[in-house]
Amino acid sequence: xxxxxxxxxxxxxxxxxxxxxxxxxxxxxxxxxxxxxxxxxxxxxxxxxxxxxxxxxxxxxxxxxxxxxxxxxxxxxxxxxxxxxxxxxxxxxxxxxxxxxxxxxxxxxxxxxxxxxxxxxxxxxxxxxxxxxxxxxxxxxxxxxxxxxxxxxxxxxxxxxxxxxxxxxxxxxxxxxxxxxxxxxxxxxxxxxxxxxxxxxxxxxxxxxxxxxxxxxxxxxxxxxxxxxxxxxxxxxxxxxxxxxxxxxxxxxxxxxxxxxxxxxxxxxxxxxxxxxxxxxxxxxxxxxxxxxxxxxxxxxxxxxxxxxxxxxxxxxxxxxxxxxxxxxxxxxxxxxxxxxxxxxxxxxxxxxxxxxxxxxxxxxxxxxxxxxxxxxxxxxxxxxxxxxxxxxxxxxxxxxxxxxxxxxx
Length: 410
What we know:
The protein is α+β, with helices and mostly antiparallel strands. Helices cover 42% and strands 20% of the residues. The chain has 11 helices and 16 strands.
């Protein structure tokens, strides 16, 4: 099994200068290759591959720019490979059209070769021994990526580890409803608060952004102000990621099945009244972390369809009613169930959907129809539940007139 590891580097002045040179060469090669590809698209020609671009780079660019020979050849080569991957994702409509890189934003480069690890030090080509802020795993990585965030440099690599020992899970199934006020509400009543780091540091960001705008362009004072602003943005991202890692690790280790909704995050961000609060939560990162952690800890992640109305359904009788965002308490207009927190009711509905709809769909599917995407025994399973939910509702209404409740609310 491959695991990723990332830690901060403690570089001296020579190593910092060398890292900046590598990042600059990688950025120059990427922008040069992107200009060639855009010209080919405008002339309705085939987009050159990374190999073709590298051949032209050696023949045309390196002769005119001798500083290319001061850094490792791996940096520009991998930059062109990343460009090719970007165009493939754009053709598959998985990403936007590649854009030119700007100095100081997401600077990174790739190195490979004879890499050794000793305690909290790692030896990489060109740089030699680099000191890290923590002990490194006893591994022999084949390549590394060095990146910069704010004024700090980080190194990341992958290494092989044995399969983890599987522990007995304390609980079986949990439904998790994501929200803005409380980041995650579990069906067992456990609530994970949202730290809202951007809102907490909004005043500081506003002050620092004002300082940047008042500084003269290309001046040293402006560069210092940009660094101070970048540090605050890094702190916001670190607080958000730390909270998400704690929640997703807890869920993957404790439960056998985690049921969540497939939120339309890009659509939610188009609502300008909620965009700031939604972006401060990290819904996409929450799902991404759960996807690999559930595989790591022998857990199954089931993703319900985004059109499943978990917040609008009554947990007891399946009655559907409108629930505007300002209404935080659910009370059924049909059977009088409640009052109950709307997020808790949604989480309970996700567990109920798992037992009554999802399990039934994978055990007794109709002829010629496949309900699940992928293997239902492990990993991530995404299910389209709209049609099956309506069929289930009709079946229950015709049989008993009321859905059977499999759970009790404490």
